[in-house]
From TrEMBL:
GO terms for molecular function: hydroxymethylglutaryl-CoA lyase activity; metal ion binding. It holds the Pfam family HMGL-like. GO terms for biological process: ketone body biosynthetic process; L-leucine catabolic process. CDD domains: DRE_TIM_HMGL. It catalyses: (3S)-3-hydroxy-3-methylglutaryl-CoA = acetoacetate + acetyl-CoA. SUPFAM superfamilies: Aldolase. Keywords: Lyase, Metal-binding. Belongs to the HMG-CoA lyase family. It is an enzyme of class 4 (lyase). This is hydroxymethylglutaryl-CoA lyase.
Amino acid sequence: MLAERVRIVEVGPRDGLQNIKETVPTATKIELINRLAQTGLRTIEATSFVSPRWVPQLSDANAVMESMKSSVDKEDITFPALVPNLKGLEAAAALDVKEIGIFLSATDGFSRKNINCSVEESLERSRVVVEQARSQGISVRGYLSCVIDCPYDGRTSPSTVLAMAKKMLEMGCFEISLGDTTGTATPKDIRHLLDVLLAEIPASKLAGHFHDSFGQAIANVKEAFSMGIRAFDSSVGGLGGCPYSPGAKGNVATEDVVCLFENMGIGTGVDLAKLAKVGTWITQQLHVPNGSQIGMGLT
Ligand code: HMG
Ligand code: MG
């Protein structure tokens, strides 16, 4: 019998760095990705091809991705990038990006603040992006934000999330990453949401993307796992946050996710000791607290 495994999508270089106030040198970003690539992580989201007016922190996306392109020893690692529109897709495709993430919101308030359009408009825009990406052999992951709560519109109903997730899968996303953008979910909320989603969508098409504002993210990961979810986004050192979700804290720390699953006998493929060193190094470089207790304990 094959041992059970989970797939970890490391989002630190993208979600983690998009919200850092001080300018992070491009060389530090590239070194972060290279160090993460030595830990056993197989999917490392590298950057976003977004408007530099909106997210100046990632305005060096071309340079970061160019450096990944020339990495000869990383052929078994995927370096996806976020793309909001055709302009972003064009930039990503020019750098041979093999996987992109489109990002929509279940709620209009966050959609307008984050990508400057309504949910309906975002669906229309994304359809064209997904179609063009897939015609070029680029696979597309779908991020859906505000699946529990929206900083502008309040609580989100699971039926709204279900309708959006189905539309995104129908348009050609291979998986939907369910974003607790505000980081306010509790395991009860996750169970309630997944009860509704899993009635119509296979667990293999869903992933968890939990921010940790209330310290519940790791419990949410465990809850989602118990309901069949096997893919989780996380960020080394617990970095992260969206500039358009005020007050939201970082993603669940990758160190904590690896520790949880390895102790349950579920494989992650990641070397926790090596990863903890990366978490300590990058949080020192950025002058931010290390968001992983286990990471601090190990280094
Ligand atoms: P807009 O202002 O409506 O777009 O923004 P526009 O088409 O009018 O363009 C404005 C300017 O941006 C123009 O430049 C464009 O050329 C340029 P100007 O003529 O003014 O010099 N531009 C671009 N430049 C580079 N790459 C591009 C691009 N597109 C336009 N792709 C837009 C609309 C979507 C572009 C903007 O709102 C945007 O870039 N938003 C990104 C916001 C973002 O990245 N948020 C964080 C990621 S989402 C997240 O963190 C949540 C997630 O983690 C899950 C969760 O936690 O819930 C995924
Ligand atoms: Mg996020």
